[in-house]
Amino acid sequence: MNEQQALxxxxxxxxxxxxxxxxxxxxxxxxxxAQRVAxxxxxxxxxxxxxxxxxxxxxxxxxxxxxxxRSFRPWLLQIxxxxxxxxxxxxxxxxxxxxxxxxxxxxxxxxxxxxxxxxRSEARExxxxxxGRISVDHREVLVLKEIQGxxxxxxxxxxxxxxxxxxxxxxxxxxALKEALEAMGVEYP
Length: 189
What we know:
The chain has one domain: Winged helix-like DNA-binding domain superfamily/Winged helix DNA-binding domain (Arc Repressor Mutant, subunit A, Orthogonal Bundle), CATH 1.10.10.10. Helices cover 68% and strands 0% of the residues. The protein contains eight helices and no strands. It has helices at residues 3-16, 23-42, 45-61, 72-91, 116-132, 136-147, 152-159, 163-183. Helix 2 crosses helix 6 and helix 3 packs across helix 4. The chain is elongated and about 55 Å long.
C-alpha cells in the first residue's frame, strides 16, 4: 500500500467512525480528476459538475463498501463512470459537443504566434467533436488513459473490466478516434 492509499484509507476509517469532516480532504484531492473525467465523458461542463457532485454523494453513502486495501481513486472513478453512463442514457442524444475551455489545452501542442489561443481553441473543438463520434466505451478509456493518465490497472478497476480488455478497448478507441477525425477532414498522425 503506498502513502496516498494509506492516507485515503485513514480518512475513510475516520468517516466511518462518525467523523464526516474527514471526507472533505478526499473531495479536495479527487474532485479535479473526477471533473476532468466527467467532462471527457459528457462533453458538457455543467453536466460534468452535476455528475461529480452526485458521485461524491454516492461515494460517501457507500464508504462502508470501500475496500481499505485498494486505491480510492479507481473506486471513486468507477462510481463516476456509472453516474456518467446513467446521464448519457438519460440524454439519449449521447455526447453533446460544446465549447470547453479546460484542461485539454495542456495536452495540445503549444504553438507560438498571435493566433495561438485561437488555434488551440479550434483544436479542442475538433478533438471534442471527434470524441463525440466514438462509442462511450472507447471515449471512456481514452479519457482515463490519455487525459487522466491512469494506468491500465487503474482503468481496469474503474471500469470493472480486465486489463486485457482495457488494452483492447484503448487500441480500438484510438483507431476509432483517428477514423472519426479523418471523416471530419482532419489529418491525424
